[in-house]
Design brief:
Blueprint (H helix, E strand, L loop, with lengths): L1 E4 L2 E4 L2 H10 L1 E11 L5 E6 L2 E3 L2 E3 L6 H13 L3 E3 L8 E9 L2 E14 L14 E7 L1 H9 L3 H8 L6
Parallel strand pairs: 3-9
Antiparallel strand pairs: 1-2, 3-6, 4-5, 4-10, 7-9, 8-9
Length: 162
Amino acid sequence: MTLSYRRLTIHLGPRTLHRLKERLRWVRAAGCVVTDEGGDMLLISRNGRWDLPKGKVEAGETLLQAALRETAEETGIEATPAGCRPLPLVKTYHSYNLYGGWHLKQTTWFAACATGHHPAGRPQGEEGIAAVVWVRPDEWRRRLEHSYGTMRTIVKHMPWTD
């Protein structure tokens, strides 16, 4: 497993991950890498950085259901899983201090498709999202490579962005 914090990336083994889970509040989240019919890719601008839609898994939800729900909530764009058997693309991990305690967030990422070419989005302002944009894959990669460490991990795992 790889844990990113700011510009520091640490590779962790299963035992170390287990020990971290015992000491930190464990948060499960899911998100989508969304492509439209024209091959453009979805980005959001959250708190001044380029990001992808994601959020916490609610009780009774699967990871895929959470990823699609969060995408719709944060962007106003409905998406469907890519492929006949949607499998996670990659999992990312990051830690943060919130409400007086450290959390370790595991986000599972899925490929998804939006219907149409550039469906209109609606940024969820209460989540700090200022913009929802569609960009070509090379621009998607460029913007995310200059964002959070977890976003760079996702870029590395996307075969269609090479």
